[in-house]
Amino acid sequence: MKLEEGEKLVRYARRVIEDHVKGMESGDIENFEEKAGVFVTLNTYPDKMLRGCIGIPEPIMPLRKAIKEAAISACHDPRFPDLREDEMDSVVVEVTILTPPELIESKPEDYIKHIKVGRDGLIAEQGYYRGLLLPQVPVEYNWDVEEFLQHTCMKAGLPMDAWRSKETRIYKFQGEIFAEEEPGGKVVKVEMNA
Question: Which domains, from first to last, does the chain contain?
Answer without folding.
Answer: 3-98+175-190 (3.30.700.20), 102-173 (3.30.1490.150)
